Amino acid sequence: MLNVQDLHASVGGTEILKGLSLEIPAGQVHAVMGPNGAGKSTLSYVLTGRAGYEVTGGTATLEGEDLLALSPDERSARGVFLSFQYPLEIPGVPALTFIRTALNAQHKARGEDEIAAPAFLKLAREKAAALKIDFEMLKRPLNVGFSGGEKKRMEILQMAILSPRMLILDETDSGLDIDAMKIVADGVNALRAPDRAMLVITHYQRLLDYITPDRVHVLAGGRIVASGGPELALQLEREGYDKYARAA
Amino acid sequence: MNLTAAIRERDPTALPGKRDEAWRWTDLRGLIRVVPPASEAVDPRDVGQGPFEHLVSASYLVANGGRDVRIEVAAGEEQVVALRFLARGAGSHTARAEVDVAAGGRLTLLETYEGGDGGYVAHALLAIQLGEAAALERIVLAADGAEGVSVSEAEVRLAARADYGQSVLLAGARRQRIETRVAHPGGGAKLRLDGVYLLADKRHADLTTVVTHEGTDGVTMQMTKGVVRDQARGVFQGRIVVAQGADRTDARMEHHALILSDRAEVDAKPELEIYADDVACSHGNTIGALDEEALFYARQRGIPEVQARALLTEAFIGEVIDRIGHEGAREIVRLWAAQRLGG
After folding, report:
1. pLDDT digits (tens, 9 = 90+) for B162-175
2. ipTM, two decimals
3. CB 3.0 to 4.6 Å from B162: which of A130, A193, B12, B158, for a disulfide?
């Protein structure tokens, strides 16, 4: 599914990713953990094509297709979805309008038919109910005046409706209380499927109590410096990142 | 400085220009060396339907000037009226309209400026009077041609407890200016004064307003938003004067503009002059680019760049269009704006 090899990337002339390699097969959930400043958010932005994140070496492919050659919206239409650490507020655009516009743009890019309004509303109602989101909230401008937890749930709702293949969750647990985290984790777990892969980026181990990863990687100094099973997350929680930060 | 006299006498020295403080960003004297001859008459039978005509009970057409219009609404009566100013060819012309809404009357005035491709010079003067507790919603769609020079000036007087709402939409021209001067001599009058300018290429639009509160308990809510691209230039001049004794006036002015290219320009001059003590007045003014983070967010969700920019700019001006009361007119205006932002 996702294959990243020897990826180097700079922001404003400073190299942040220094030869990062990572493979996530279809059907698996991998966690990337690391201290602040290790390059976790940079990894998510490089994979999604944000301006200002310059790739200076290496490759990133999804099902063999070169992601780095595609625009952000083309990557999205290929199934790459990033749940933002800080979801943006979009004044003046109701959440439903935004999500429907995105869904139809993806359909169009893939040469599929547009989804009609009644079918879309039915889909949105179902997915919102599963995430305990009040449907009325979807008529309000996206994320404007929403709490941190509501914004994160709105990210998962978009993920559920857009149904991507490659899910990247950037610090999705930040700003969530325990109840909100359970709802979000249930939403993410419902999307686990043999033809999907997930990359869960987090600083703390606690989200991984709810979303159990197949593999855990430690990102420090712009590279993956250690990999292991779920037990690696627990070890990091006990021992911290010190020894990896020194190794990097 | 009098545009009507300059056109009538074909005297370019009488045109307003940058030495006139209120015209310093829309310098007609510097632009027009020779005032063109009088516009030729237009046969009304050669003129098609206007954008609002299916919504109205009466429609007034002023084609290349030459006709004065008077619209009257009797006490307690309600009307929806279209007023169309057409400009064809490359001549110059002036027109006058008087609008009188008697006490308790209600009028929706759907006004359009429909310009052809020629280099015309057009001037429209409106005198609008609202009686006690009368209501008028004026929606102005200013769609002049790229080579035209078009100036519209409206003088509005509000009696006590009158309710006046205005939404002006401008697409610019070689020079285009819509000026509205509103006096609140009566107490307790309510005013909504909105504008949207959407400018591309080398178009220029100037939205100028002067509001004078003379009575007590008056309300002015003003919101203008603009989007300029290419080498276009937007001008906003908003002035609110609260005279001595106009106590408990509540006046808010906002102007926000998006500049979508390096060579586009916006000039803004918001002014509050307050001579009364017990008032609530404020103004806000911002000029900036489209939020790049929001743009990336929309693209990450699969919306292509051009469409994402259109979505965000439509949303930006949507807040002003949503304030239009007449539903049919509001949807026509929304479509008109979307067409101008889509490309």
Report:
1. 999 999 999 999 99
2. 0.95
3. B158
